[in-house]
Prior knowledge:
The chain is of the alpha/beta class. The protein is built from eight helices and twelve strands.
Amino acid sequence: MNKPLILVVEDDAPVRNLITTTLKAHEYKFITAQNGNNAIMEASSHNPDIVLLDLGLPDIDGVEVIERIRTWSDMPIIVISARSEDKDKIDALDAGADDYLTKPFSVEELLARLRVTQRRLASNRNEGASSVFINGALRINYAAGCAYLGEDELHLTPIEYKILCLLAANVGKVLTHTFITQKIWGAAWENNVASLRVFMATLRKKIEVAPDSPQYIQTHIGVGYRMLRVE
Ligand code: CA
């Protein structure tokens, strides 16, 4: 498989060098941009497979870069934020970012995020528009409105089924609490994270073999949830 082309957007030279050195060592192809306007230009002219985007840029805000790219492309965007920018990170995910890394991050974390994103790209290519979703032992038959774990049909409430389908449709991607609650209940439920947590707990009990160390649904504390691609 060809190594994907990564667009690295980072104004801080040491961080940029760490990223590009890592990419080079793992035979990724990359291009770089040092500000938001350049990032948009590079994204449109090179159509990279993945964008690594620092949120604190000298010209325009990283969230604006995402909004602009999303007007024409679904290319995966992994944002890089400082711990103090937690709110920005959530805004970035709501604007359409796929995943995030928090500074300081390790080389291993960076590579792991890239692998998750590449797996998602590969599985999206293979699946296309299918009426059946398969991930490990988990199977959703959309036409029948049923979900299975191995041979066993799962007895899900309508809300649990909706949440499962939403996570499945975005497998590999971190979904924020706001995004999930709006999709499931509409805008009125916007900050009802506590209710979502309850439904997640009951859903996990039904689909996870060990709900305390979940295989399918990952928790991102203070951010949201992600369904992982299970081998
Ligand atoms: Ca920065």
